[in-house]
Specification:
This protein is an alpha/beta fold. The protein is built from 16 helices and 19 strands.
Length: about 500
Amino acid sequence: MKKKIAIIGAGVSGLSAAAYAAKAGHEVHVFEKNSQPGGRARQFTTAGGYAFDMGPSWYWMPDVIERFFRDFGQSAADFYDLVPLDPQFDLIFSDGCLSVPRDYYQLRDLCESLEAGAGRKFEAFMLSARYKYEAGMQDFVHKPCHSWWEFLSPKIAASAIKLDLLTGFRKYVKKYFRHPWLTALMEFPVIFLGASPKDIPAMYSLMNYGGLVLGTWYPMGGFYQLILAMKSIAESQGARFYFDSPVERIVSQDGRVESLVVQGEAIHFDAVIAASDYHHTESLLDETQRNYDHVYWQSRTFAPSCLIYYLGFRESLPNLKHHNLFFEHELDAHIDDIYKEKQWPRQPLFYACCPSKTDAGVAPPGHENVFLLMPLAPGLDDGEEVRELYFNNMITRLEKQTGLTHLRSLIDFSKSYCVRDFVQDYNAFQGNAYGLANTLSQTAVGKPAMRNRKLSNLFYAGQLTVPGPGVPPSIISGKIAANEVNKLKQIQYEGAI
């Protein structure tokens, strides 16, 4: 029976949930606190002609994204031009640069050139990573994870050993590679999962396959084109969007959500999918109706927040690729400062994205669009003075890479974004940028529950619940949440908003 469903938040998981719930025949209403969709994947433009993607910039796991479009009888190509990047990215070390080719065999030969026997080991590593990717994407990530019983099937049991769930990722990588450039190449993708490689299960080598083998892509016009496409699909299914409309309270009665209070008005719904920050969503409930208290959230291991600079340069910058990872310092030193010391990094690594190398439309003619990102611990004081200190650190290293010692004088647009901005714009707990870390204890059933245990018609989606952080997992999260709503017992439909 048709239900009237509210979705809180128009980020990736909210857009996905809206599209799937509307496709199932429900009346769907999406409430977003900001003035545009996308959440962390928003985009802003400047009067000077720059277009900056505000968050995600790595278009990986293209098959997962394409599957979303196919579920609605369409393709990504119907909405934007998706181009492959070659080289995929550069890893910049203190003693040189590793430019990562797109071609699988060229990448294998590059590994062999750095370490005898590494070419053969690369093939073995990726063969295992492919198995984990295919098993994970088909059998694991689509579970709502209400209980471990969901994973008790002969097929999944047979996969468990091959998935290396109990092996640390670093130890696993060291079985294959010794050269520091190669270990860095294999370890860096899991940084997005929010913990040290030694604390991440080796199962996540699936990231290496999903990125290095399936390739790094770019949607012309920016990552925001994916957001616009997802919104268009949701609307084509009948979903309605309300921007600048933060939800002020979730009202319940007799173990069910009855209504949402938006701009002072209580609006009835049969079910709610909260694709907003999980901790914030629960603050809209009475304490007795929350899944988790403040002590729980304080005890979780969060993925990093980050310091971001959106920069426009009035000249082209040499020696930069579309994606550039500055790894001149030790990875562990930076990670320890985030997770152990919970302080600003003393020897920071950072990432520089220069999409204007691929897409001239994101910057004025002859100019360069640059996005700098440095991971840091959530909850830090991020005043302008400390932001400027780390900006100068990154710019100095960027000057060394480009050979331009006057980069600061070329800047014609600059905007920073950090911890307090994540709190203000997304109600992010402690200003986190990537949700919870995918440590073993915070994987699958170990994540915050997708279903509210006190209110039968309230569900959660997004990077703080199943299956985890990242754009492809968030797409899947929205789909799972919509499917959970479909399982609700048939109830009386109350009519239009």
